[in-house]
Amino acid sequence: FNAALNDSTLFKFQGFINGEWVAADSGEEFDVINPANGECIAKVANLGASETQKAIVAAHEALEVWANITAKEKSIYLRKWYDLVIEHQNDLAHIMSLEQGKILSEALGEVIYGASYIEWFAEEAKRIYGDLLPSTTLNRRSLVMKQPIGVVAAITPWNFPTAMITRKVAPALAAGCAIVLKPAAETPLSALALAELAQRAGIPKGLFSVIPGTDAVAIGEQLTSHKLVKKVTFTGSTRVGKLLMAQSAQTVKRTSMELGGNAPVLVFSDADIDKAVEGTFAAKFRNAGQTCICANRLLVHASVYDEFVTKLTEKVSHFVLGNGMEASSTMGPLITNDAVENVSDLVADAVGKGATVNIGGAAREGEGYFYQPTVICGLDQTMRLSKEEVFGPVAPVFKFESDDEAIAMANDTEFGLAAYIFTNDQSRCWRVSERLEYGMVGVNETAISSEMIPFGGIKESGQGREGSKYGLDDYLETKYICLGNI
Ligand code: ADP
């Protein structure tokens, strides 16, 4: 497929360690599958523990090189990387759509969104400030400086194969760290293309290595146990996040975790229903429902429930499922057949307990891993859909009668990433936003993310923030220096 790229050398299928493209020590390769048709699009080097160790050691050595480069120069390197990503946006989108399945326009949107983190942290690299504190005695001065935490290990998921990487790699490099990345085995090609562009930008060798591989346990164990790694940053499931935190505890590594979500959308009786439907639609079905801030539970006031459901169902009926590379497609496949089965099980559970399917409600027959966009009603708290993250194009609509009930339902989950509310009542905006136990709340808006905001969750959705002026903190240590007897 690389013939279709403007720059076919962006198609990389080896690991990237210390500035070199490498085969696996074992010589093994693994298949990258196009989820739209099940075809193998590439065979990629299957790296493991030994290569991970080499990348960590190289990263540690590269720290010294990076420490001798000024903040301004680091910023210039990052900016160059950003420019290259933008220049090659169409190729990167093409690669992403093939390996991940999302439609090309969404893939392009992600490349630009992902690049914005590089641009942002190129700017922030020059704004890492310290402090001069008041002292307890006249003959001393108390200083605070920020220093890079050191070697960072990053593990990323398949749902945003570019943005989840730039969000970690750009702040790490801006802070003066070096980073070893293990991308999801489903989507290594986007990560490797980013590494190629980072190298072209002149970012010194060893600072950013990529370990593609299917043995996540072996690679993860190295990344979380190696003494030279000082921080682990992860985006993925809560189950794996907890495991990585436990493993990292043995050497007291810092961790940043961006884990599962179970985002509620609260639609109050005074809401603009058309806006609520539009916002919910976008938040629910983006990336075929496979984002951690996807609307997962739609909680709608009884007085507007029927209108909301009718309008949402009408909008959903226009989706065209298909290969993301085809212009006519408005929704791509899910990532794997297992993903389709998980969604099918959740819908079957609800239907078995009395829910009704308004539209969709089944996998699509034929090639590829497609599930029909679905609206399902008549749900209650006994159904798995009320508790579990769907990660597919299924919109479960619940009914509520009072604000207190809606807030209680919204908070009745171990997750706390994003929540959305639709209301035109100013005081309700404040009251409800403050009571929602979530790291991010969208009021009359569901497209809430950008490089300029702190993205992250509370409760079992994680810790740490990505993007914004807060996003560098996760990669910096605070050092206090006492100048005495002066
Ligand atoms: P998802 O549902 O998005 O696949 P996962 O948490 O399983 O969520 O995967 C996210 C990332 O974590 C992927 O890169 C995957 O390979 C990696 N991963 C999965 N299991 C482990 C593990 N035991 N140790 C380290 N990384 C893991």
From TrEMBL:
Keywords: Oxidoreductase
Coiled coil: none
Domain Aldehyde dehydrogenase: residue ranges: 21-481
Gene3D superfamilies: Aldehyde Dehydrogenase, Chain A, domain 1 (3.40.605.10), Aldehyde Dehydrogenase, Chain A, domain 2 (3.40.309.10)
Top-level taxon of the source organism: Bacteria
Protein family: Belongs to the aldehyde dehydrogenase family.
Name of the featured protein: NAD-dependent succinate-semialdehyde dehydrogenase
Native species: Marinomonas vulgaris
Lineage: Bacteria, Pseudomonadati, Pseudomonadota, Gammaproteobacteria, Oceanospirillales
